[in-house]
Amino acid sequence: MAAESPTAPDWLDKGDNAWQLTAGSLVALQSVPGLMILYAGMVPTKWAVNSAFMAFYAFASVLICWVIYAYKAAFGKKMLPFVGVPGPVVEMDWELRQAVLPSANITANFPLSTMVYFQFVFAAITVILMAGAFLGRMSFKAWMIFVPLWLTLSYTVGAFSIWGGGFLFWRGVIDYSGGYVIHLSSGTAGFVGSYWIGPRLKADREAFTPHSTLLMLTGAGILWIGWNGFNGGDPYAASPDAGAAVLNTNICTAMSLLVWTALDIIFFKKPSTIGATQGMITGLVAITPAAGVVAGWGAIIIGVCSGSVPWITMNVIAKKLKFMEKFDDTLGVVHTHAVAGALGGFLVGIFATAKGCIAFAAVSPGGAIAGNGKQVGWQIAGACFIIAWNTFWTSAIMLFIKYVLRIPLRMTEEELLIGDDAIHGESAYTFGDAVHMHLPTTLHGKEVRKVSDVEATATAEGSKSKSTSNGGKEDKIA
């Protein structure tokens, strides 16, 4: 006789739990495989494996730290006005309890385990987005240490302060789904970190051509559709507000993509898939702090701004500022995430409606259009805190890794020149012409064929030519 199924607790809403798990899974897909594919497509072939692997590693690393101590630091009981008491969430009886955010006085109708997973995927994608600024030269060993340290000292503070019941939460700062906690923090940290790591090779900076625009667009598509869970899951319920957030997200993103593409055509005379992808991302980012608390027309206005302001900072302002040359932000995350996130956070201070804030159970009564003009000031204050905190701690962590642990932040010159095969002993493509032409092919870090006589001769002649150039001295790598 089959055993009786356990009775569901009275507080459980199966629809809310199903949607929350679905939303969390959609966000996870944005990182693996979404951003892995996007990064692999946007970089030259020699960096495809390393770029994807940085995202793959970060996803796993963040999860273990999250369940051991970081979740409670971000969403647990208050220890300080900006961070909670760290601790584990791996005890089974604790995971089966109802989800409660004690410092924010928020209760959801699904298990704590669902909440822990949902918040984890946000933490993971924040670090992965930041990696976009470091591609093409950050040491993988340094990245392995940087990820848990930054999660601990930076992400948890922003999350608790704005979402978990910290001082900015109770001041009514609106960040519906991470414009500040995720995008402004990752964009700021990526920009600052790019300075400490140093630039890519000169040749890479001058010609960092995407090796597969189709891969890039595939990753971008996964990112866009996955954002339905990113913003739709933050009411913590399968509610009307979740539907509004999803619709507004897509409206703003479409408008932003169209505006960016139009600007590309006007000023560069050609529509660009890379530009359209950037416009898509800035639209997704800018609507994130506002998704469920603005009306549809507000989403359109935010989309116009997100398709134009970051375009100007990336293509005009950044090229005129000399100091920007010291910040080799590989994929421009300071524009697509920091600028777009701050812009969206500012605009929600204007366009948040009273009904939207009530539906979201926000502390704030709404933005300027709802008669609450001071909301704009609090949005600016929240942005300043996130920028300052991330600037300090990203710098401190980078310097700690470099000078205390004595682990180089930047790859060796050989790794910078060769790429994936020197770093991981693996190549992105090991079939077709690579096999027939006897090009280097690796498997789990070991070569699977011998160098032919023709290749050996060519290599020797190349080395001789190099050694006799420049007065008999080897040319230095840029």
Automatic annotation (TrEMBL):
Membrane topology category: Multi-pass membrane protein
UniProt GO molecular function: ammonium channel activity
NCBIfam families: amt
Organismal lineage: Eukaryota, Fungi, Dikarya, Ascomycota, Pezizomycotina
Family designation: Belongs to the ammonia transporter channel (TC 1.A.11.2) family.
Pfam families in alphabetical order: Ammonium_transp
Protein name: Ammonium transporter
Compartment(s) where it occurs, according to its Swiss-Prot or TrEMBL record: Cell membrane; Membrane
InterPro entries: Ammonium/urea_transptr, Ammonium_transpt, Ammonium_transpt_CS, NH4_transpt_AmtB-like_dom
Transmembrane segments: 18-40, 52-71, 116-135, 147-170, 176-196, 208-227, 247-267, 274-291, 297-318, 339-364, 376-401
Annotated region (Disordered), positions in chain: 454-478
Alphabetized UniProt keyword annotations: Ammonia transport, Membrane, Transmembrane, Transmembrane helix, Transport
